[in-house]
């Protein structure tokens, strides 16, 4: 499990960020700090894998924190979450190993993508002593490219076909907030019910689809599915 700290001086935003982080079961928020100095004091004594950092805070702001972090040679990745969208701020933080830069208010899906990219990079770098060109390209890809590559690799390992996975996503996307049963999805995609259920399990595990029970269908409740973000949390 990846150990995360949040450095954010606005309590409500910090709490919301913690919820976003811990939606991914591979990540756990170990502490929240309102300024960079408190965070540095913590890192001296506790291992940390990822920092979610605001730039503008009292006592020690995010830019000074990044400088101190690298000066002390702490090897930890940083995702910046800030309202600062000007090129100057972005140029200032890039030399300090920032792996992603999210603008407030950010969407849940974009934050999840940042975590997925971080996780993928760590998995690839820790899996082997040397990388081929494909592996290196994946490490340095953009968030969207990394997400797509991660999905392809995950499906290949499990013997699943990307076109079938995407067909179910497209079908659910077309329905908006309306949830569909596995049987309906099978009819609309032309896939067998066994195949649909297998792929739905993977979609749920990947946090792309949510399931719920529909009790309005008669005497027997039916499990239904919809895209996350379409009326789900």
Q: What would a concise description of this structure say?
A:
With 233 residues, the protein is α/β, with parallel strands linked by helices. It is 49% helix and 18% strand. A five-stranded parallel sheet has the order 2-1-3-4-5.
Topology (SSEs and partners):
Blueprint: E1 2-7, H1 11-22, E2 27-33, H2 36-45, E3 50-53, H3 62-71, E4 77-82, H4 87-93, E5 98-103, H5 108-127, H6 133-139, H7 143-157, H8 162-174, E6 180-181, H9 182-189, H10 193-205, E7 209-214, E8 222-227
Parallel strand pairs: 1-2, 1-3, 3-4, 4-5
Antiparallel strand pairs: 6-8, 7-8
Strand order of the largest sheet: 2-1-3-4-5
Radius of gyration: 20 Å
Quick one: biggest sheet? 5 strands, parallel
Order of SSEs? EHEHEHEHEHHHHEHHEE
Overall, the morphology is elongated
Helix % is 40-55%
What distance separates the N and C termini? 22 Å
Task: Name the structural class.
Answer: alpha/beta
* Strand element count: 8
Query: What is the mean predicted local confidence, pLDDT?
Result: 84
* Low-confidence region ranges: none
Please count the helical segments: 10
**Beta-strand proportion:** 15-25%
Descriptive account of the structure:
By secondary structure, the protein is an alpha/beta fold. It is built from ten helices and eight strands. The strands form two sheets. It has a five-stranded parallel beta sheet. The longest helix has 20 residues. The two termini are 22 Å apart.
